[in-house]
């Protein structure tokens, strides 16, 4: 499973370096909310947090060809942390003493967030592996490859209704296997 995750990460990195707009949009959709939460946990300011994330994605798009990105997740969160530190250093948020507390809290939050995200990702992949083969294939095409129900139906030569049924089955099984993480499931099944 971890090998698949590394392969997908590498696929995104290559796509970004080639300025593939579709890949950039997938990365944006995949990471925006996590990066925003990371920035907001420290800044406690909606506009500044949005600006931080926008700046990171802007930098990624404009400089992807020259960036030495080995791990996309690590690069993005490090870039957010760097932008947040710049805001803290500029004094736009709080006094210097409060900044020291916030920086310490940020470091702990990022570590915790990374562990939670890694655990969630691992458990999600384990849950997907437990799905019946056809159900798993359709779920991956829908939620990871982000194909529409119609495109999946055409690709697999089945009806759209069959696609919808298989995705529904996958969601129910994953809800059961991830029941202790029920509050995060809307994020896992979100499609734009």
From TrEMBL:
<keyword id="KW-0805">Transcription regulation</keyword>
<keyword id="KW-0731">Sigma factor</keyword>
<dbReference type="InterPro" id="IPR013324">
    <property type="entry name" value="RNA_pol_sigma_r3/r4-like"/>
</dbReference>
<dbReference type="InterPro" id="IPR036388">
    <property type="entry name" value="WH-like_DNA-bd_sf"/>
</dbReference>
<dbReference type="Pfam" id="PF04542">
    <property type="entry name" value="Sigma70_r2"/>
</dbReference>
<dbReference type="GO" id="GO:0003677">
    <property type="term" value="F:DNA binding"/>
</dbReference>
<feature type="domain" description="RNA polymerase sigma-70 region 2">
    <location>
        <begin position="38"/>
        <end position="90"/>
    </location>
</feature>
<comment type="similarity">
    <text>Belongs to the sigma-70 factor family. ECF subfamily.</text>
</comment>
<protein>
    <submittedName>
        <fullName>RNA polymerase sigma-70 factor</fullName>
    </submittedName>
</protein>
<dbReference type="Pfam" id="PF08281">
    <property type="entry name" value="Sigma70_r4_2"/>
</dbReference>
<dbReference type="InterPro" id="IPR039425">
    <property type="entry name" value="RNA_pol_sigma-70-like"/>
</dbReference>
<dbReference type="InterPro" id="IPR014284">
    <property type="entry name" value="RNA_pol_sigma-70_dom"/>
</dbReference>
<dbReference type="InterPro" id="IPR013325">
    <property type="entry name" value="RNA_pol_sigma_r2"/>
</dbReference>
<dbReference type="InterPro" id="IPR013249">
    <property type="entry name" value="RNA_pol_sigma70_r4_t2"/>
</dbReference>
<dbReference type="InterPro" id="IPR014327">
    <property type="entry name" value="RNA_pol_sigma70_bacteroid"/>
</dbReference>
<dbReference type="GO" id="GO:0016987">
    <property type="term" value="F:sigma factor activity"/>
</dbReference>
<keyword id="KW-0804">Transcription</keyword>
<dbReference type="GO" id="GO:0006352">
    <property type="term" value="P:DNA-templated transcription initiation"/>
</dbReference>
<dbReference type="InterPro" id="IPR007627">
    <property type="entry name" value="RNA_pol_sigma70_r2"/>
</dbReference>
<feature type="domain" description="RNA polymerase sigma factor 70 region 4 type 2">
    <location>
        <begin position="122"/>
        <end position="173"/>
    </location>
</feature>
